[in-house]
Amino acid sequence: MKRFILGVIIGLFIPAVIGYCYVRFGFAPIATSAQPMPFEEKAAKMIMRAHMTKEMPKNVPMQPTEDNLTQGANIYSSNCSFCHGVPDQPATLAAKGMFPLPPQLFNKDEMVTDDPVGRTYWTVKNGLRMTGMPGFGEMLSENQLWQVSLLLSQADKLPPATKAALTKPQPTTSSTTPSTTPAVTPKPSTAAHHHHDHDHD
Ligand code: HEC
Fold this sequence. Notes:
By secondary structure, this protein is mainly α. It has a domain at 63-169: Cytochrome Bc1 Complex, Chain D, domain 2. The protein is 43% helix and 0% strand. It has helices at residues 2-24, 40-55, 66-79, 81-84, 117-126, 142-153, 160-167. The protein starts with a helix and ends in a 34-residue tail after the last helix. Heme C binds at residues 79-80, 82-84, 94, 98, 100, 102-103, 112, 120, 123-124, 128, 131-134, 136, 148, 152.
């Protein structure tokens, strides 16, 4: 019995020491360009998915009408395309220097058209800690969050007007000319609020 307990203690102790040394002596990657840690990507994905599946809303409170999709496209080109790109164009510079890389959401292989819309909504609202993906819950209204999420869920079958709104030239960030599309449209007050929206914060 004594031996067994000793075995357990050593068995727990050795991996702990190795783990500590790995981090303490600077082997854990910090640069965005560094190789990922063993299992880093798998573990991160698993943790994220499990958490979102628990918290994401199951009901989508609006339809993917052309109007909603085009509104979503305007929100996207002001707030998201810098990292996530637009249809038929090469990835942006930001999309090359981050870790993890921002998925190019209009690229066939990286779009989130198979994900539940509620999961995309959760991601856009709350952001993803330590990835560079901002949470937009403070900047966008409920309606806007759903519109941009619907846009991404339909990324492979957008009506032409929506696609046009996505690819129209963007005002530069330090624009001196007055821009017609403010970077973030102010939250519309109560009027646009759906009463069946549930907020789980
Ligand atoms: C500063 C860069 C940046 C901006 C701006 C940004 N994102 Fe992201 N986003 C990221 C990164 C990086 C990830 C990848 C996180 C990961 O791989 O874990 C991500 C992930 C996502 C995902 C999850 C994709 C998947 O495969 O599960 C969605 C959806 C998303 N972003 C939507 C948006 C929307 C919508 C906006 C604008 C309202 C936006 N992002 C703005 C960097 C950004």
